[in-house]
Amino acid sequence: MALSRHLHFNGTTWECLLCDRAFKSRSALLAHCEYTSRHEWCGQCHRVFASSAAKKRHLQYAAVHQPKCKVCGRILRNKNNLRMHQQTHQPRNKECYADDCIQLFKTFSGMLIHLESGSCPSGVDETRIDGLARSFYRSIEFTTDADSGGWIYICNGCERECSKLSGLFQHVEDALDCGEFMLECLEGLREFIEEHI
Ligand SMILES: [Zn+2]
Ligand SMILES: [Zn+2]
Ligand SMILES: [Zn+2]
Ligand SMILES: [Zn+2]
Ligand SMILES: [Zn+2]
């Protein structure tokens, strides 16, 4: 493997140009790079960085550190995008909760979009979904007063507001941290909707 920037082999000794120090072996130089507090190190790439900002940029942009889809190998910009992208590989196996509808969905938020749009043969629409959500006994945990009057859905993990319940579910399906935070309550709501629709 070629030596990183800031490191140099002069034919006899292995040098750290940042510290102006020489080592007898490559492994001694690399050990220095790993353990010194004078500069930064990426152990996976064996690369040295003069500052933590430079290392941060490296972790953010180097292809090897980007989240990668295990199914198709596509590289995504961040974990949320990866999660969203991976849903495209998921089977459509969630059947619409309405009895007289056989449409299939990959995610619950996808089903909610269908129901809110009013295109479900059951006649369920956004008003009905909102009504169910509001009558769930834990609705205070995912709704809040809207500036414009009335109320609006809110993610209690990040305070993001959503005008539709599908938007809130989509958000927590995509944002891992918020998903964990809201999971129990929204799972309860999902079951409540399944029972009452
Ligand atoms: Zn050094
Ligand atoms: Zn690296
Ligand atoms: Zn993929
Ligand atoms: Zn339906
Ligand atoms: Zn959130």
From TrEMBL:
| InterPro entries named in the record | Znf_C2H2_sf (IPR036236), Znf_C2H2_type (IPR013087)
One Pfam family cited in the UniProt record for this chain: zf-met
Mind listing the GO molecular function terms for this protein? zinc ion binding
Keyword tags:
Metal-binding, Nucleus, Repeat, Zinc, Zinc-finger
The keyword Metal-binding is annotated on this UniProt entry? yes
**What SMART domains does this protein's entry cite?**
ZnF_C2H2
Where is it located?
A: Nucleus
Stretches assigned to the C2H2-type domain: 14-39, 67-94
Gene Ontology cellular-component annotations: nucleus
What Gene3D superfamilies does the record point to? Classic Zinc Finger
The residues the entry assigns to the signal sequence are none
Q: What is this protein called?
A: C2H2-type domain-containing protein
Source organism: Aspergillus leporis
